[in-house]
Amino acid sequence: MSISESLDKLGPLCRSAADCAVVLDAIRGKDPDDLSSRDIMLGDPFSVDITKLTVGYLEDADKEVVGVLKSKGVNVVPFNLDYTVDSAQGIVSFTMDVGMLANFDEWQRSNQDDEFEAQDQWPLELRCARVISAVDYIQYSVKEGNCTSQAQRGRSKLIQEVKENFTVDAFIGGSGDWEKICVGNLVGMPVVVIPTGFKKISNAPSDDTRRKTTITTGIYAPPDHDHVALALAIAYQSVTNHHKQRPPIDDIGPNDSIPNPPTSAVPARQLRD
Q: Where do the record's region annotations for Disordered lie (predicted)?
């Protein structure tokens, strides 16, 4: 579902980085029915010589990923992506609300606000977005906590600063940091999110529950360099097996029997056919 055209990005969800490369190659390109899409070439990630790459790692980078890539011949260095915009989150929030209203304008005008699931959030946000003028959208001061940033002018400044300060071929960092996600969205920075292990779920029903959730990290590349991030992810997964594992998803302990085990509702013969 389209939300905000200048922020929306299309990407595959696959079992491996190699599969992601194949699917991305199939879905990339200009969509004649989508005026916001662009025809961008995708380099071949399978032909990238990773030993010629310099890859940075942030403080929150998964050190195992850093170590594996280093063992594969990648030049890894400490790195920090510097920019002066106080809050990318504020710019994203402002931009997304206006972009969403542009997409859902007819829906809201026809009084279908009650169809939204989050009634305590989206209808109100879209009504607020309707009173934003064009001047405000370009230069309105967006406050996020104690930080202040300039909407679209701030975004342009952020894009330029990231371009100037992206002094490595890619960098490794946490995939769940919201500020980093916002920077990636505003700049158009591709990221491959890879699994690196499992951890216990929060608020588990019991101490011996088998249920776990995936730990992930991100490999970020400059805009239009998706193939570099994919090449590094493929290299990492070539010598690790995190992406081949499946976490238990039930709430049952290791010594518990499964009550009322599910049975197939489709006859076996029909399954064979």
A: 243-273
Amino acid residing at 18? A
**pLDDT tens column, 50-77:** 999 999 999 999 999 999 999 999 999 9
What is the β-pairing status of strands 54-57 and 170-173? parallel
Segment 130-138 mean pLDDT? 74
What the block records as the tokens of 231 is 């090449």
What is the DSSP track for 119-154? Answer: TTTHHHHHHHHHT--HHHHHHPEEEETTEEEEHHHH
**Eight-state DSSP code of residue 202:** T
- Count CB neighbours of 264 within 10 A: 8
Ranges of beta strands (E only) in 102-174 are 141-144, 147-150, 170-173
> What is the rounded distance in angstroms from the CA atom of residue 44 to the CA atom of residue 157?
31
The three-state secondary structure class of 27 is helix
3-state class (DSSP) for residue 161: helix
Q: Name the more confident of 97 and 56.
A: 56
